[in-house]
Amino acid sequence: MAIAKYSLVAVDCPDPEALAGFYAAVLGGDVKRDDEDWYVLHVPGGSRIAFQRASDFRPPNWPRGDDNSQQMHFDFDVPDIEAAQEQVLALGAAPLDLDDDGGRRGFRVYADPAGHPFCLCRA
């Protein structure tokens, strides 16, 4: 028996409206503003991701674990990693690790505009 029901993931960032817009462009869905510090992306299929203003936010030092390490990251399955890469870079993502060993490794790592790591994974 489960103890709890999943509600959402909350992501700290300096500009929640902009970051919610970035992920809405990547995943689709609708962004709802609760207040100037809290935006929620309602992703097709029912999941939710919240974006919360953190005025002293520092992006993680990916992939380091010894100082300001990442606390979480998103994995997104894509049918065409080359096309998806072009699109997320055009939206403002930054490449962190694109060496997929000639396609043998099934993912590539990027940072969103606030510096959070995320992966595009071959579906």
What is the number of helices? 2
Write down the Rg: 15 Å
Taken from the alpha-carbon principal axes, the silhouette is: globular
Low-confidence stretches: none
- Derived structural class: alpha/beta
Series of H and E elements: EHEEEEHEEE
Q: Averaging pLDDT over every residue, what do you get?
A: 91
* Helix proportion: 10-25%
Strand order of the largest sheet: 1-4-3-2
Main beta sheet: strand number and arrangement?
Answer: 4 strands, mixed
SS strand fraction:
25-35%
Alpha carbon gap, first and last residue: 31 Å
**Care to count the β-strands?**
8
Description of the structure:
It contains 2 helices and 8 strands. It is of the alpha/beta class and 123 residues long. Strands 1-4-3-2 form a 4-stranded mixed beta sheet, covered by helices on one side. The protein has a 4-stranded mixed beta sheet with strand order 5-8-7-6, covered by helices on one side. Strand 3 and strand 4 form a beta hairpin. The longest helix is centred in the first third of the chain and has 12 residues, at 16-27.
Strand and helix layout:
Elements: E1 9-13, H1 16-27, E2 30-35, E3 38-42, E4 48-53, E5 74-78, H2 81-90, E6 94-97, E7 107-111, E8 117-122
Properties at a glance:
123 residues, alpha/beta, 4-stranded mixed β-sheet
Describe the structure concisely for a colleague.
This protein is α/β, with parallel strands linked by helices and 123 residues long. The protein is built from 2 helices and 8 strands. The strands form 2 sheets. The chain has a 4-stranded mixed sheet with strand order 1-4-3-2, covered by helices on one side. It has a 4-stranded mixed sheet with strand order 5-8-7-6, covered by helices on one side.
